[in-house]
Amino acid sequence: MNILGINYAFHDSSACIVRDGQLVCALEEERFTRRKHTTDFPRISARRCLELAGLKASDITHVAVSIKPSLHWSRKALYALRYLTNAKPFIKHEVLRMWWRQRDLADWIAECWPDAAQRPQLHFIPHHHCHAAGTFLVSPFDSAAILSVDGSGEWSTSFLGRGVGNRIEPFGESFFPHSLGSFYEAATEFCGFQPNYDEGKTMGLAPFGDPNSSFYDSVRQMIRINEDAGIEVATDWFAYQYWGKKRYGAKFEQTFGKGRGKNKKEPFEKHHLDVAAVFQRVLEECGLAMARWLHERTREKYLVISGGVSLNSVMNGRILRETPFEDVYIMAAAGDNGTSIGAAYYLYNVILGQPRSFVHLSPYVGTEYDNAFIKQVLDEAKAPYTYHENVADIAAQLLKRGRIIGWFQGRMEIGPRALGSRSILADPTQPGMKDKINAEVKHREAYRPFAPSAIVEARNDYFDIGVEDPFMLKVCNVLPDKRELLPAITHVDGTARLQTVNRETNPLYHQLISKFGALSGVPVVLNTSFNIMGEPIVESPVNALRCFYSTGLDDLVIGNYVVSKS
């Protein structure tokens, strides 16, 4: 049985292939179009998935789509009637946009399967079922509590439930405009960032502000988690519910001051920092309240979290530390990019009733390029290079010399984090390294922190975390006596967004970090995504070369080849 999973309705378009219950490949459209968080229909990624799986369109038996367009239309209609003065943006956002999306899907199906009699069966899966159930169904847990939170999908903004085997028991949902994701998007916009895009910047900015400032009481009035763990938002503070250009309203700005402009050179004022800090604190408190309610309801040992809000790794870290759950699983592509995977597995395990047989512990499910192809690209670009059998040794020596390297190896990761296949690496012990990479390589805001990758065997020597975190989605504390040793990856509040690297999952990356540890005494590297601000992570050798030569990278370690600048 070959299932093609598709996410196309909102953002972060993607495709995947699940063959007889095994995830063969999963790709994000942005990596090919070079438009970050693209809403384009995933034509390229679907075609490349078929190529990677060695399949033709005629081999696909089912297509699972991560949206059910007909869902919650009565709720939408009632809401629209309440805001007739805003009918035009509602129609544009909820009717016309969905119509165009459906036409894209119909056109693509007609192109791939011209003969209607040979078309695979098409399944529309509710968005939050793809987030929540899809994440649980590929988790390592036989049973777990389930929490999914995002801006909105169809009309739902959260999903709470429990998974046992291949069965999903729903407990409840929240509905637009009561949205924790939209609540946080307003703070993102206020801080001068792009909402529904730059929430990670808000999270990184928060430690520079005061979470206990006088703003806290006002923000706490905006949102609450009720006795059924439902989200309730006081919408008079906001404007996102009108589908306009602004997420926050006049009352918001009257209370907190003038929002920061979108020019990245415009300085942050104290009230911007404090808004980021307080909204982050309240988001964490809401996430903790929902998780604790789920534990009280289910008494499960484990929790799975999904949806766009689950990318807030600071919140995830607190849930892990401060709730009774023994471990928390967040899929590598926990946002909309992973709903293609969720749709495919919801279809396979729940609708078709097949037993679970796959655990998503390796994010390396993307494209791969061999040495012959890489050499051809390097030759055509007339790039000087050397060949090395032991690239991990060479890369470790370069890092020890203080070089900043692009690391392009094996199959590409799925999800927003570079996890050792398409990464920029550096020595985390050098005090000026964070500022150097932000300014000369990433071309981004100076305050932005970088993440560490540590071999799993050494994680407790440097970080306060009791579980593995292979997907870099749980912020933990750097041990106090190690913070001066690791200045380039220790954030201003003493935390780090750690990736634990397992020898079985990524042997070459594990070898590199181990070799660097032998040279430096610290088996930890600085790891950031192989891209510059505003661009997707590099997908191909051509992307890697372009990024290498247009930034302050010193070396490119690509396959078994090393390209160096003098």
Describe the model:
This protein has 3 domains: 2-129 and 340-351, ATPase, nucleotide binding domain (Nucleotidyltransferase, domain 5, 2-Layer Sandwich), CATH 3.30.420; 140-325, ATPase, nucleotide binding domain (Nucleotidyltransferase, domain 5), CATH 3.30.420; 371-564, Carbamoyltransferase, C-terminal domain (DHBP synthase, Alpha-Beta Complex). By secondary structure, it is α/β, with parallel strands linked by helices. The chain is built from 18 helices and 23 strands. The mean pLDDT is 95.
How does the helix and strand content classify structurally? alpha/beta
Whole-number total of structural domains: 3
The CATH class name of the largest domain reads Alpha Beta
In CATH, the homologous superfamily of the largest domain goes by the name Carbamoyltransferase, C-terminal domain
CATH third-level topology of the largest domain: DHBP synthase
- Per DSSP, what share of the residues sits in E-state strands of 2 or more residues? 15-25%
* Measured distance between first and last alpha carbons: 52 Å
Catalogue the unreliable spans. none
Rg value:
23 Å
Average pLDDT confidence is 95
H/I helix tally: 18
- Major sheet strand order: 13-23-22-14-15-21-16-20
What share of the residues lie within helices?
25-40%
Overall 3D form = globular
Q: Give the biggest sheet.
A: 8 strands, mixed
